[in-house]
Amino acid sequence: MHAGVYRIEGSESSWEQALLAAVLAAGDSAIASHRAAAVMWGIERIEPLIELTVSLNRRPRMKGVVIHRTDGLLLPERTHLRLVPLTTPARTVFDLASVIPRGALDRVVEDVLSRRLVPRRALAAQLAAHGGPGRRKTNVLQELLDEHPERWARAEGRFERRLLRFLKARGFPEPVLQHKVTLPSGKDVFIDAAFPDHLVGLEANSYLWHTSRRDWVRNQVKTRALTAMGWGIIPVTWEDLVPNATTFEEELRTALWTFSRP
Q1: CA distance 87 to 108
Q2: SS3 for the chain, per residue?
Q3: 46-59 pLDDT per residue, tens
Q4: Among 84, 113, 128, 233, which has the minimal tally of Cβ within 10 Å of its Cβ?
Q5: How far apart are CA 134 and CA 109, in angstroms?
Q6: Can you name the residues that pair with 176 across neighbouring β-strands?
Q7: Is the pTM higher than 0.90?
Q8: CA 96, CA 105: separation in Å to the nearest integer?
């Protein structure tokens, strides 16, 4: 496969096998990084390149392999996944900032925070350890991180994070996530995002955000009970949160105005 690295005859080849072979051939300091590490960590919509980072004193040359050289890779930023030495999730996101466009990095940050693959504080620590004014990866990643404040850690999945960003960009007050309401029966239910002072709630309205039809039906029953208590519940879909969407924004402004009247 590479000089000094061989595949057992008859064994099935795979991208991950090719990545491990490249790491082994590149020497002791080599580690899968950037887009290769992102693919290993399950980050979607990333090109599956064979991409490595090695120390500055190494100059491996391998066909079809992207090589980065650095003296700034710290021991805590190294780990293993299924035998492959690679960068930690936080370091991987930091490195991606230098090789993918801003829009793609935006999706990555939202994805890893939503899946709790990387806590926000870990990305902040990467910026503190390796950042510096004027560095593209530092500036872009910091700007994106600023769009995900620490208090959003309670957000459950990408949908809630996208909803929070949508509302923030349009000047809405920040809702309370997973707001608890006690029904007359004594049962506690939770609204995905609520404006309690206005009795307005937002509920994800898609099979995608419920694990089964039974969950979806249960959510409709909850909505009816909240409506009977005077809550205005607005169903929200992924399509409502695209940048040029206006209908949901107008409906929410109307609801907040209506329910704020004496």
Answers
A1: 16
A2: CECCECCCCCCCCCHHHHHHHHHHHHCCCCEECHHHHHHHCCCCCCCCCEEEEEECCCCCCCCCEEEEEECCCCHHHEEEECCEEEECHHHHHHHHCCCCCHHHHHHHHHHHHHCCCCCHHHHHHHHHHHCCCCCHHHHHHHHHHHCCCHHHHHCCHHHHHHHHHHHHHCCCCCCEEEEEEECCCCCEEEEEEEEHHHCEEEEECCHHHCCCHHHHHHHHHHHHHHHHCCCEEEEECHHHHCCCCCHHHHHHHHHHHHHHCC
A3: 999 999 999 988 88
A4: 128
A5: 20
A6: 194
A7: no
A8: 7
pLDDT, tens digit, for every residue of 174-219?
Answer: 999 999 999 999 999 999 999 999 999 999 875 544 556 677 778 7
The three-point CA angle 227-196-245 to 5° equals 80
The amino acid sitting at 84 is: V
